[in-house]
Amino acid sequence: MNMLWLLLPISIGLGGLGLAAFFWSLRSGQYDDLDGAAERILFDDSDPE
Amino acid sequence: MSRGGDELLLASRTLSDGLRQNELAVPGIHCGGCIQRIERALTALPGVAHARVNLSTKRVTVRWRAADGPPAVRETLEGMGYDAHLQHSAEDRPDATLAALIRALAVAGFAAMNIMGLSVSVWSGAAGETRDLFHWISAAIALPALAYSGRIFFASAWRALRRGQTNMDVPISIGVLLAFGMSLYDTLHHQPHAYFDASISLLFFLLIGRTLDHVMRERARTAVKGLSRLAAYGAMVVGEDGSQRYTPTEDIAPGMTILLAAGERVPVDATVLSGRSDLDCALLTGESAPQAVTAGSVLRAGTLNLTGPLTIRADAIADDSFLAEMMRLMEAAESGRSGYRRLADRAARLYAPVVHSAALLSFIGWMLATGDVHRAITVAVAVLIITCPCALGLAVPMVQVIAARRLYERGIMMKDGSALERLSEVDTVLFDKTGTLTLGKPTLRHDGVAPEHLAVAAALGAHSRHPYSRALAAFAGGLSPGFHSIVEKPGLGLEAMADGGAWRLGRAGWAVGGEGEGHDAGDAAETLLTLNGRFVAAFRFDDDSRPGAADAVAALRDAGLSLAVLSGDRAAPVARLAGSLGIATVHAEMLPGEKTAHIQALAGRGHKALMVGDGLNDAPALAAAHVSMTPATAADVGRQAADFVFLRPDLDAVPFAFAVSVAARRLVRENFALAVAYNLIALPVAIAGFVTPLIAALAMSGSSILVVANALRLRPRAPRAGRARPETAGQHRFAAAAR
Question: For residues B619 and B326, is the Cβ–Cβ distance under 8 A?
Answer without folding.
Answer: yes
